């Protein structure tokens, strides 16, 4: 909710990790049902479960802007960013490695690369899926290069998509087995 005598132009949600000094943040605008509204009551939903910060504690601040160019900020609200629940053991390991990488990429990238390499070399644990094998090896190679920081976002996306593929594959296999039965 927001109110302003000049009219509310925008409300932006800004999410920052707790305990990190970087200016990195997630931000998105809340859609409003008009322009320069004197009173606003709006709800907004964003699925942030694929975001690398999912499962980590964050601060949320709402920033409202009015037609006169003034800004108002809410108090910080701390909470744990929701995360998707994975049931396949390999998908869980991939997501855990992704989270370890997110917490401190510089410190953890080689540990994560080693862990992903060990997962990759046990293809029977993820139904010998060639795409999963190739994705894990690609992530390992990218984490081991000197310029890994430029590819970190891509590695994070690749790990997420790989975990989702592993998770979805087991559901598909179970559905086929049920249909055969």
Residue stretches low in confidence (pLDDT < 50, at least 5 long) are none
Secondary structure class reads alpha+beta
Beta-strand segment tally: 6
Level of helix content? Answer: 40-55%
What's the overall average pLDDT, rounded?
A: 88
Radius of gyration: 21 Å
Largest sheet: 6 strands, antiparallel
Order of helices and strands: EEEEEEHHHH
> Kindly, what is the distance between the CA atoms of the first and last residues, rounded to a whole number of angstroms?
53 Å
**What does the overall shape look like?**
elongated
Number of helices: 4
Q: Give the amount of beta strand, in percent.
A: 15-25%
Protein traits:
181 residues; alpha+beta; 4 helices; 41% helix
Notes on the structure:
- With 181 residues, this protein is of the alpha+beta class.
- 41% of the residues lie in helices and 23% in strands.
- It has 4 helices and 6 strands, in the order ββββββαααα.
- It has helices at residues 89-103, 105-120, 130-144, 152-180, and strands at residues 2-17, 26-29, 37-40, 57-66, 71-73, 77-80.
- Strands 1, 2, 3, 4, 5 and 6 form a 6-stranded antiparallel sheet that branches.
- Helix 2 packs antiparallel against helix 3 (130-144).
- The longest helix is centred in the C-terminal third of the chain and has 29 residues, at 152-180.
- It is elongated, with a radius of gyration of 21 Å.
Short description:
The protein is an alpha+beta fold and 181 residues long. The chain has helices at residues 89-103, 105-120, 130-144, 152-180, and strands at 2-17, 26-29, 37-40, 57-66, 71-73, 77-80.
């Amino acid at each position: 909710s927001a109110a302003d005598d000049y009219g509310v132009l925008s409300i932006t949600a800004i999410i920052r990790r707790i305990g990190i000094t970087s200016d990195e943040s997630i931000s998105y605008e809340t859609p409003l049902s008009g322009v320069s509204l004197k009173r606003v009551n709006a709800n907004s939903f964003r699925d942030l479960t694929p975001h690398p910060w999912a499962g980590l504690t964050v601060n949320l601040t709402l920033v409202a802007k009015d037609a006169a160019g003034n800004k108002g900020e809410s108090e910080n609200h701390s909470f744990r960013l929701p995360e998707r629940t994975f049931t396949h053991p390999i998908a869980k390991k991939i997501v855990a490695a992704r989270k370890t990488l997110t917490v401190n990429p510089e410190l953890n990238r080689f540990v994560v690369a080693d862990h992903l390499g060990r997962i990759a070399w046990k293809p029977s644990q993820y139904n010998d899926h060639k795409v999963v094998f190739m994705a894990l090896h690609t992530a390992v190679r990218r984490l081991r290069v000197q310029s890994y920081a430029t590819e970190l976002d891509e590695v994070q996306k690749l790990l997420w998509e790989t975990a989702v593929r592993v998770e979805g594959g087991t559901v598909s296999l179970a559905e086929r087995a049920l249909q055969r039965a």
